[in-house]
Amino acid sequence: MVSDADALKQLRWQEQVADKRKRQQAAIPKEWLIPPVPEGQTNVADVPRSCGLLTDRELEITEVSDVTVLLQKLAAGEWSALEVTTAFSKRAVIAHQLVNCLTEIFIDKALERAAELDAYLKKHGKPMGPLHGLPISLKDQFKVKGLETTMGYAAWIGKYAEEDSVLVKLLLQAGAVLYVRTNVPQTLMWGETHNNVFGRTLNPYNLRLTPGGSSGGEGALIALHGSILGVGTDIGGSIRIPAHFCGVYGFRPSSHRMPSYGVVNSLDGQESVATAFGPLSSSLSGVTTFIRSILAQEPWRYCPSAIPKPWSQDDYSLKAHGEGTRLCFGIMWDEGTVKPHPPVLRALEVTKKALEAAGHSVIEWKSLRHSEYIDVTRSFWLADGSADYNSCLTTGEPLIHSMEPDADPNVIPDFRIPRKPLSAYEIWQLNKERRELRKHLLDRWQATASSTGTGRPIDALICPPAPYAAVPHGQKRSSIYTLIWNTVDYPALIMPVTKVDPKIDVKPVRESFWSAEDEHVHGMYDPEIYKDMPVGIQLVGPTLQEEVVLGVGKVVDTVLSSSGHK
Amino acid sequence: MVSDADALKQLRWQEQVADKRKRQQAAIPKEWLIPPVPEGQTNVADVPRSCGLLTDRELEITEVSDVTVLLQKLAAGEWSALEVTTAFSKRAVIAHQLVNCLTEIFIDKALERAAELDAYLKKHGKPMGPLHGLPISLKDQFKVKGLETTMGYAAWIGKYAEEDSVLVKLLLQAGAVLYVRTNVPQTLMWGETHNNVFGRTLNPYNLRLTPGGSSGGEGALIALHGSILGVGTDIGGSIRIPAHFCGVYGFRPSSHRMPSYGVVNSLDGQESVATAFGPLSSSLSGVTTFIRSILAQEPWRYCPSAIPKPWSQDDYSLKAHGEGTRLCFGIMWDEGTVKPHPPVLRALEVTKKALEAAGHSVIEWKSLRHSEYIDVTRSFWLADGSADYNSCLTTGEPLIHSMEPDADPNVIPDFRIPRKPLSAYEIWQLNKERRELRKHLLDRWQATASSTGTGRPIDALICPPAPYAAVPHGQKRSSIYTLIWNTVDYPALIMPVTKVDPKIDVKPVRESFWSAEDEHVHGMYDPEIYKDMPVGIQLVGPTLQEEVVLGVGKVVDTVLSSSGHK
């Protein structure tokens, strides 16, 4: 029995959502609307190029992948901030029409800002900061003064921010232009992107597949070159899964390296495994430029939990890592319970061969105790017995229990059944468990020094970002491969390496399985479903060694490029 | 009614304590026993010098205050590690007989180690590390392989450590000699030092007063020159209160700057306001040498929560703070609810005048929202409803409810009544509150840039370490003045400045009070009780800026010395 009050409430949130979507639609200039893609076309990656809306110049601008190149042209005044912002805004809006990746669209503000930056450059003869004129997209958690921050909750419609998030403030200080925010899943705690306010985001390489999540709007937008650099958040893989699924670079720094203050979040206040804030970009230079530019603004002067650790050029140039020559990598083929699909293993194999051919070495790293990592981290996430989610669902908006398009909303799958709330004392005990796991890993990492041949521990660890490339909507399983690095707070970089090729990546015959989950994931593989989907690798280093991971990343990226794998 | 089982249990823990004390006594060489001090003598500070047990050479060695001087003589082989260790061991044992400051006494091991170090120096012609031959005392939380770690709990008697704490490992790696561990209060959560295993530690300047706590054994030992450098822990003032009460230097670094792994603790796993690990010393050089030596060992390679932030000589030399000239200090005379006693205010006044005379400036800092700091932090500490304490009191040993010598053990004072346990979700909400308080403080700190005249925010903040000097046993009240810096995780240094002088520090007439606590604390003041007790100041800087606080501390120390206040 639905009471009248409930029915009214139900109506009201749906009306609010309808109004919100109408306002979102109104933010799109009419002349930037494109016709729908033909029924049955699943790959829309080329539509921004082929739809005819972008001028040649706009195409030239938006198809730059290397952020450094774009920044140089902006700083030199070769391209104005206004034309760059216009180009990316148009392309972002095109992308949105294809894959539903945006939440807030605020192009007017962006163009105004871009004009100010152009005037600044003209007047002062120098750029405003290291990100002068660069359009940057933001996941729907970063508050921008005067804009709503809904984070996919109906109850948050109409919550206008009175202040910028610290990270937003620093981006503006560095000269960036903000123009769009991007879609997320309800509660953020999914590896896909769908909510009751903005709906579902699709993968541009195959609309039937998910772009991943929770920073799925960013992944899809950047893959379509509607943004060259975006900011996401990651508590279990939320930057890295979309980066891997959409074929872009994504970096999860350590939790407190980037400023977190003033960002809206799910499970806010849960600090045992804390959210990390980091970039997604079409180039590694975008990732590195972002981290360096933020650190140059001394975020610890604005955010109380940002660690005052300036950018270290010595670390980035791998001074203590043989200057980047003859590195030794660990390689973890799997985490022991779920074997990755053939294209994922091939991406690792390709990387290993390319590194060895370039004079580096690669040693095996065996996954140990990873199931304990998962147990501890899930216990933290679920410690409130859903109190946080419930506090955000005050409008009658239902909690989404599945990312499957046709899921019965009343069926709660096992893994989403709320747990009994934990006590503070139980959290203390879990913190101790996590500490032991971190110590165990650190000791193992340090102990590799005896087998690398360099006198040092491994310089970085290479591992899969997930057991598969982008999966059909609703099919994303647990995020083991990314989550493990959140548990120990290790920085982790996703780099695109290859695409699924059904000719090479044939389905193997397997007669025995490591676990029920392993069997299920094996069953999901059909080369034709995943055809042409991007596949990346994950590169990991110890806590707060962001510069080392990025420096080693550059070595790997260069090696892969020069061996023809980019 | 006491059941037979309970009576037996009761007997058993008391027998274990008696046995433990017997073993402790047996660890003291008989020839190092001294006669008891005459009845009625309250100041024993001179006894080590006057008792005749120490040779002139041993007096010369142990009365060096400056750790750098001692290290130079050790490194040069001018004094052998063996004679230095012998001298400090003898003096520590004398101190223990006077003020009951030790727990584990392991002089045999220490002398063996010292001999090895001497042999090393002879063989290699260079010291083993930056702390070569330096005897270092440890609070009773730092595990040393093969020794018991009781931390004042009867139930922990017989718990022999299988491994060194990481900090112990690094001290040994740096060449230190370990020889004694020092006393703590039961549960650690007191500003005094008394437990059922080792009993009460006394203040060497007045046995009727407390040395403070929880690192009270360290404070008393160092005041008597039974140690030149010791290691304590601080979650609400536990390094700083004893430093202030005993007239030594004490430094609470930020929580994760020093390695914490492998240390036994109270409320273990409570990470919202995390324990900090730091030194107490008879000199500022001792404090600085400790921090620098530990960081030089790269603690993050051994401890998973140690932040990989190397020692910054630029920060220590105040490169970004005008190279230490024309600094601007904030001064906080009180925290707004409890006015400090006259000698504490005089220590601030003396410091202010000396700094101004040396060309620095001092501006007022008003305490804001400090009662919220206290509320949040106490809520974290008490979140388990005493589950942690209870898990350590399995022998029938009673929980101590008061530090008063004659307290009725059955009366539980209001502030020690266990609270209702909190849920994980409630902890999340408290974490958010703490974040807002930290942001509020950071913004205020940064905003001082407009009034310092240096173009920078204040270079450090000067404030009282407590509203009083050392108080009679059982009279230590809440630790507001130290605890506030734990809440926000700011590094804080205690520096001795003066002593209570009843002629100058007369009791003021006050007609109105800021709070009931203010009135109570005012009522505690009688210049004759506090006569000759040391009084320090507290110097505070932003999170993880240890080098800056130590660098500014050096400026203050030099100014105070050259103006005759040391």
Automatic annotation (TrEMBL), chains A, B:
<feature type="binding site">
    <location>
        <position position="214"/>
    </location>
    <ligand>
        <name>substrate</name>
    </ligand>
</feature>
<dbReference type="Pfam" id="PF01425">
    <property type="entry name" value="Amidase"/>
</dbReference>
<dbReference type="GO" id="GO:0004040">
    <property type="term" value="F:amidase activity"/>
</dbReference>
<dbReference type="InterPro" id="IPR020556">
    <property type="entry name" value="Amidase_CS"/>
</dbReference>
<feature type="active site" description="Charge relay system">
    <location>
        <position position="214"/>
    </location>
</feature>
<keyword id="KW-0378">Hydrolase</keyword>
<feature type="domain" description="Amidase">
    <location>
        <begin position="83"/>
        <end position="550"/>
    </location>
</feature>
<feature type="binding site">
    <location>
        <begin position="235"/>
        <end position="238"/>
    </location>
    <ligand>
        <name>substrate</name>
    </ligand>
</feature>
<feature type="active site" description="Charge relay system">
    <location>
        <position position="139"/>
    </location>
</feature>
<protein>
    <recommendedName>
        <fullName>amidase</fullName>
        <ecNumber>3.5.1.4</ecNumber>
    </recommendedName>
</protein>
<feature type="active site" description="Acyl-ester intermediate">
    <location>
        <position position="238"/>
    </location>
</feature>
<dbReference type="InterPro" id="IPR036928">
    <property type="entry name" value="AS_sf"/>
</dbReference>
<comment type="similarity">
    <text>Belongs to the amidase family.</text>
</comment>
<dbReference type="InterPro" id="IPR023631">
    <property type="entry name" value="Amidase_dom"/>
</dbReference>
<feature type="binding site">
    <location>
        <position position="188"/>
    </location>
    <ligand>
        <name>substrate</name>
    </ligand>
</feature>
